[in-house]
Design a protein that fits this description.
Shape: globular
Strand content: under 5%
Mean pLDDT: 86
Number of helices: 6
Largest sheet: none
Structural class: mainly alpha
Radius of gyration: 16 Å
Number of strands: 0
Length: 110
C-alpha cells in the first residue's frame, strides 16, 4: 500500500544519491551522471524524481527505472559474474543467468 508513497520514494532516491556519493566520492558521482553517453539515463532518473515530487509517483517510478537501467546497465555483467561464484547456489544462478542472456563481462564501467 505504501509502495508508491511519494514521500518514501523521494526519500529513497535522496538516500540512494547520498549513498552513491559516499561510496565513490562527489567528483566521480558528478562525472558519472554528467557523461554524454549517459545523458538520457540521467535525464530519465532526475525527470522521474521530479514527477514523483509533482505527485505522479507511478509514472515517475517507471521513468526512474528506465533511467536506472540505462545508467547502471553496464554493471549487470559484473553482478552476474559475482553471483555465479556464490557457494551452493552459484551454479543454479549461473543457469538462470545464461537463460536470461546476461553477459559475462567483469569490467567495471566507472
Amino acid at each position: 500500500m505504501l509502495f508508491f508513497d511519494r514521500a518514501m520514494l523521494a526519500m529513497g532516491n535522496i538516500l540512494f544519491l547520498i549513498g552513491l556519493t559516499i561510496i565513490i566520492g562527489p567528483a566521480k558521482t558528478l562525472l558519472f551522471f554528467a557523461r554524454k553517453q549517459k545523458a538520457k539515463g540521467t535525464g530519465a532518473f532526475f525527470g522521474g524524481l521530479l514527477l514523483i515530487l509533482m505527485r505522479w509517483p507511478l509514472i515517475g517510478f517507471l521513468v526512474e527505472m528506465y533511467g536506472i537501467l540505462i545508467l547502471f546497465g553496464d554493471f549487470f555483467g559484473t553482478i552476474a559474474a559475482f553471483a555465479r561464484n556464490a557457494p551452493v547456489v552459484g551454479p543454479y544462478i549461473g543457469l538462470a543467468i545464461d537463460r536470461l542472456g546476461v553477459g559475462r563481462s567483469t569490467d567495471l564501467p566507472v
